[in-house]
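Hi there. Long-time user, first ticket. I'm pasting a complex I've been working with (about 694 residues overall). I'd like to know whether the download I got is complete or cut off, because the file seemed smaller than I expected. Thanks.
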Amino acid sequence: MTTSHEVSLVRGRSRILTRFGREVNWGDFVFRRSTALIAGLVIAALAAMAFAMIQASRESLAKFGVGFVFSSVWDPVRDIYGALPFIFGTLASSLLALVFAVPVSLGVAIFLSELAPSWLRGPVGFLVELLAAVPSVVYGLWGIFVLAPWLRDTVEPLLGKVLGFLPLFQGAQHGFGMLAGGIILAIMITPTISSVSREVLRAVPSALREGALGLGATPWESVRVAVLPYARSGLVGAIILGLGRALGETMAITMVIGNRAEISSSLFAPSYTMASVIANEFTEATGQLYLSALAEVGLLLFVVTVLLNVVARLLVWRVGRLPEGGRL
Amino acid sequence: MIARRKLGLALLLAVVACKGNQPSDAPAPKSSEAAPEAKKDEAISLNGAGATFPYPLYSKWISEYNKLYPSVKINYQSIGSGGGIRQIIAGTVDFGATDAPMKEDEAKQAPGKLFHIPATIGAVVVAYNLPEVTSTLKLSPEVLVDIYAGKIKKWNDAKIKADNADAKLPAKEISVVYRTDGSGTTAVFTDYLAKISADWKEKIGAGKSVNWPTGLGAKGNEGVTGQVKTTPYTIGYIERAYASQNKLPMVELKNKAGKFVAPTIEAMSAAAEAVEMPDELFVSLSNADGEGAYPITGYSYLLVYENAKDPVKGEALAKYLWWGLHDGQKFSKDLDYAPLPAKVLTKVEARLKELRSGDKKLLSGA
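Hi, the file is complete. Here it is re-exported in full:
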């Protein structure tokens, strides 16, 4: 045994000593350092991205300051920019998508992992996951030619008639708007949420299910009491993954949301998202301030995504610490 | 094993090195096997980027020109006018293309003098979807402004009725559609609205993206076309080609002379004939004088540096432009563009002859 930093050959393998005198396999040493380097690169890329975005939006940051986030005027002709309607549109459409997608996705996941006969699990699971492989422009086209006309002619008049006393269901019925955007996003994030949830549910030990069933619980009760509480933090994680996709989605939602920089309480009204305004206006933007304002919208999207993910992490962490198991 | 890998790497490097040398005309004494004659005939590649509006015409030009001169390879990326201006200023392309002329502060950023070369004429049409109406809808410019300003909300408004006495206009809300992505089409359309209405000019203005007072935004000409086509009671502005290919009805607009004019090629040419082309070679054609002029018409421009850095490329580009402005014009009509009027062409010819590389004029023999 030597105590210096030297490579010794033990049993044919090269070994190296660390600072603390522990013997480490040479391969392990390289492996650890190179993976650490790769992990570091990802963080560096994130930092570089943030730096580049701040750099690109410097002019707009200097001119509008914090007001950029709270102003709702977006007027490229007069070079006045405010991002509030886009922030609202992004958050509202993503949350609406979650409202539609979460019950459906969890339902699919529970059905596939707990209730479906085994010959059905494979094909149905595959088909749901196939939804994730459809390019978003195809969803967008379907939105324009099928979803929006259907909403305009059938769904929105009905909602307006029945629930018209709520501000959510008032105003002109175009078909294109927040409702269409939310539905498209919901369809797009359903496969993400349901396939991750299914894996999470599958990971629940069978002993728990069997225990609940053995105590006389019905299948529904066993899911509610034994399976769901155990899988809680994983399910929240799955939902967060879906939310992440909804926040960043650009093409499909741009095609159906109506693209109006306005904040409205109605689901029928057109709206606009941060990703959409960048995609729509960047190519034709001329003038430093205009480009800079678009870059700042990008920066905001970045910040919003990071913030939501942090909140989500905390949520997963908290949920994970709750006592496991439920009550009948 | 290692030796073989090293050899492979060396070969790869050699290939990369050769590729790096190819496009430059720097003397390469080592490649003695290449005859100097062949060198001259080597492929020249020209890159352009910009407006989407004239893209169908430019891509036709490129394919036709390539048949005539296979050694000249031209790439055109239709990334939008704004991108075209940015790229020509940065010098990453050999020519740019834009629907709206460059602003002064943009021209100042460029490292050299840029020429606007009007290349073709296009029209923006107002398409609509009114299932009940069989005759062609006629609109006065003031009514069009009011529709886009959100002041006229119903199809059976008295102001619309005034110009369409025979049509059965429904008591439905007008669903206004605009282009949400920045576009030359929007620039031409809002330029027209601003010329008609001082109020519009003051409150909204003209540009590639504006703060629309009402309506729904759709992405691209295809998006607006799709919405107008599938949604009853909509009105939207698009390039002529999209309306004619999708067989959408187009509004007849009242022009400055007080005549209702359909957006025909002749009406577009009439607008260009009626407007004097100034020396800087860019001018707005909207709301042009002339009996038969269609009022929402505009030039689309190519942007080239007066002084080309590379004489070989510069000459090839100048010759291509010359060809496009003469032989290329015959493809305009089939693609829904109007050819340049003769008197404009004379001015453009003079401008093309000014193109140079250092002291050498590029089009001496043309």
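A couple of notes from our side: The two ends of chain A are 62 Å apart (CA to CA). Residues 1-5 of chain A have pLDDT under 50 and may be disordered.
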